Amino acid sequence: MDLNSFFLMRHELLLLVIILLFVTAEIVIPRKKKGSTVHLAILLFGLHTALGFLTLEESSLFGGMFRTNSLIHFFKNVLNIGVLILLLQSADWLQKKIEKQNRGTEFFTLLFCSLLGMYFMISAGDFLMFYIGLELSTLPVAALAAYEIMKRKSSEAGIKLIFSAGLASGVSLFGISMLYATTGSIYFQDVIQVITTTNLTVLGFVLFFAGLAFKISLVPFHFWTADVYEGAPISVASYLSVISKGAAAFILMILLFTVLKPLMQVWENLIYVLALATMFTGNLFALRQHNMKRFLAFSSIAQAGFILLGLITGTQLGTATVVYFVMIYIFSNLAAFGVVQAISQKTGKENIVDYEGLYRTNPRLSLVMLLALFSLAGIPPVAGFFGKFFLFTAAASEGYYLLVFLAVVNVTISLYYYLLVVRAIFLRRGDNPVPHFSNQLYMRLGLAFTVIGILVLGLYSPLYDYIYELSGVFN
Measured in whole angstroms, how far is the alpha carbon of residue 184 from the centre of its chain? Predict the structure, then answer.
């Protein structure tokens, strides 16, 4: 292995350099000037995101522990764009609250360490690399969930997340040990050649699957979601809902469609049941929510159920639809969380009733929220409609007609509660409406990128064709 081989790890090495720079900045930069770390973080990560679009060849390193191909490279770029938008939306909160407490560099270090773990998890070529990436992506987020140390709910969110994640991680590791016992290897290429449907293998798969189901918030592994989202800072809740969930869904898709493909008769039935349970639970509980963060938490649970419609197929079409839907979900959910963060930062209001009359005082924010909710609901012509349509097409192509019908029923349910928020914003007159305010430049840029993503992904069909071509590497 020569020096050029390490350029295959370009995403990981560049992000590691940025992390080390922030560790150094914590020591070198005087406390009075640490407000500039927000600008530094956005600049460096923006450069990192741009360099990520340089072409990268398909190969592997360290005897197959680390691998990369065109689809993995593409999805890492998608995650980078999502994190960059999140940083733009969080800049005002970081400057006004976190930097004043001299804890800005720690925030960026934890956030980037978590993203680095997701890189390794996505590029894993064996279960050891996968598990290391899983832990590295989870533990820093638990600290971020408790980052608002003056709020009791934030500390509670951190404790719930670390305990739940620890349990899920232990169960998943136990499942990996069972898979190793039956196959004699932890390398994906070796496992796929010898794995069979034995009782111990099935039990190991179920336990392993439970760990990833926790990160995706699939029922019944979703109980932590609403409480953690409500207590955590909005930026962290957005990260958990979008970046963490998207990465976990992607690696689960890779493992199901490659390493665990011989067990398809087992996991397709499991996913069928979980898809229905997750969609109905997320949508029905979202109807009862009044806090916007809890509302979006159960909405994200329901969206995870829709993702399973693509995972159940095991085909190239299913791969393309999952990646395409996750992209749309990232832009849509970031737009919704961005509006919630902007309002919470200025007024401290987070309940749906507080949004009554928002269109009369802040029409632009209202339109962004409208596009986000319409996309999450799947209303044409925004991107969410096409994302769900392709998922339904993929499931129907494999004969899951009842599942598709019940998914359409869930779309109808979700349309109702999304329109409740729209009604509050556009049709109701609140007694104490959110006053007019102007957002900082970074927030405006972040929201603008999400709007562009929602519209372009819905109207620019060649992008889906491009993703479909990339998806052939796993099928």
Answer: 33
